Amino acid sequence: AQSVAQPEDQVNVAEGNPLTVKCTYSVSGNPYLFWYVQYPNRGLQFLLKYITGDNLVKGSYGFEAEFNKSQTSFHLKKPSALVSDSALYFCAVSLFSGTGANNLFFGTGTRLTVIP
Amino acid sequence: ETGVTQTPRHLVMGMTNKKSLKCEQHLGHNAMYWYKQSAKKPLELMFVYNFKEQTENNSVPSRFSPECPNSSHLFLHLHTLQPEDSALYLCASSQDRGGGDTQYFGPGTRLTVL
């Protein structure tokens, strides 16, 4: 069975500092990994995904994530945080099954607060 | 964000009411999804439609009834709900059902059951 863990409910970082939001996963096979962001009263907005190839994935708004197979991690990073990055971040994993299913399994989310 | 729209954005209903949530996607996708988002819990996949056919029903109570008349529209019909059904209901769509396809989400409907 697939699962995703986001070990931190809350991450605080000062504006201009680098930020990391952690994600680990568990799948029986090769994973597809996603990051989404949710602003207040909004739906989930796609940031980036890892399918195959280069372990470092670059996405929207200067975010990037590194796929680490040995540590089964897919941490989200940004070199310099902005106050506007404050939001709820979700990691998700999917696995292609024989039936063609594309079910996304989400973590519980990490609330990022960037302090001015 | 206008790729997937949801109406209404907010809904308050009593336990004996019948209401419907609507989702429309303008992305030319073939798969559509309903999710339930409750506080402190992972998103729960409720239903999946692929080419208008329901391919997944994650043990959702029968008081939730989905309908997909075409690949662009998805409805969630609600009746005799319980207060614990209060949540944010999110609709999403993707090109197909391939494992790497990105799902795009609507803004959600905030449902309150009194």
Structure description:
- The complex is a heterodimer of chains A (116) and B (114).
- The model of chain A has no long low-confidence stretch (mean pLDDT 91).
- In chain A, 0% of the residues lie in helices and 50% in strands.
- Chain A is mostly beta strands.
- In chain A, strand 8 (64-68) and strand 9 form a beta hairpin.
- Chain A has strands spanning 3-5, 10-14, 19-21, 24-26, 32-38, 44-50, 56-58, 64-68, 73-78, 87-94, 105-106, 110-115.
- Chain B is an all-beta fold.
- Chain B contains no helices and 11 strands.
- In chain B, strands 2, 4, 5, 6, 9, 10 and 11 form a 7-stranded mixed β-sheet that branches. Chain B has a 4-stranded antiparallel β-sheet with strand order 1-3-8-7, with no helix packed on it.
- Chain B starts with a strand and ends with a strand.
- The A-B interface holds A 4, 32, 34, 36, 41-46, 49, 51, 90, 94-97, 99-109 and B 1, 4, 6, 31, 40-43, 45, 48, 50, 55-56, 90, 92, 94, 96-108, 110.
Summarize the structure.
Chain A is mostly beta strands. Chain A is built from no helices and twelve strands.
pLDDT averaged over residues of chain A: 91
The count of β-strands of chain B is: 11
Distance between the termini of chain B: 30 Å
Largest sheet of chain A: 6 strands, mixed
Estimate what percentage of residues of chain B fall within beta strands.
over 45%
